């Protein structure tokens, strides 16, 4: 009878034991190959965003991250990944973002990228993040990485104390709960206290080590594969780079792909999202403002993460389709006031590399839909990136940041008019 039971349950027991050993043993599994990194660079896979192993492997190769949100999935021929492939940029983009990611999610993401230290990054800012309520709790919970959270907790006795207090408190305010020990550790950090020796031992030994093993084992398995999409997009570009010719081509492609509406919105998006309810959006944004938002504090936490690791950052202010702005009745002041405020927060702390696409002379076909770059918008950004991507190491002169805790205050979050 015992032999029969073992024949039935033995393999299951052995399999469970083997899995536990894989998850808990302090073994560094080498599963992230250069081929996996190449695939991950355009995959926009949530496991890559929430993990650490693939991104840190990419930092050892010729990749510079572009960090943002849903605009990264608009992979037309002028998307940075297409352009980098076609024109053989020395360093290639590594895309990090999904619909719903915003400043606080990306602050945790950047905090977990240990190999980003002393290198370059690109960060795309979306004005619509800076709504009155800021990031939605459900969206933040969905993208919050337990691995990155444990890293934040264990590093909380270093770096800027005010930033650590803010991030821990913000995570708790958004309703995140990962277990009594982790929650209590966050409470202590939010109060300006250090975590206990037991909390450090437990999180480091039992929680983080298991999460790292899972990330090493499964973080690059069966990822989204957009390489063919990039190949197809790049094949539509001319062999030699000439900005004027590419601008004409971008305009031609944009016109061809936005014939079903007079707002220069891509036909596929218009048919899928807007055609049946376009009239419901008429003048609906007359009272929209992007100057009073907790997102400014979350954005400051992100800046601290960059500054802590001496990362040189190109910030890109994403455009909003001007035809959409007019149709929905959004005041132009909503964009210009946001523009002033976010630039003030950046420049006063030493983040001076800003590509502002929210106010350009010729804005035709700058966006692919209502609020995301496309066609000529990507091309305008590419013109800056092609030079920026020649060297991935940060210039120390461009990382002399002077961080100011005032930008973590509610007073700053609610400031409506910045005149400087």
TrEMBL record:
Domain of life: Bacteria
Any GO CC annotation of this UniProt entry: plasma membrane
Keyword match Cell membrane: yes
Xref: Pfam families: DltD
Keywords: Cell membrane, Membrane
A GO biological-process term: lipoteichoic acid biosynthetic process
Keyword Cell membrane: yes
Pathway: Cell wall biogenesis; lipoteichoic acid biosynthesis
InterPro entries, A to Z: DltD, LTA_DltD
Family: Belongs to the DltD family.
Name used for this protein in its record: Protein DltD
Taxonomic lineage: Bacteria, Bacillati, Bacillota, Bacilli, Lactobacillales
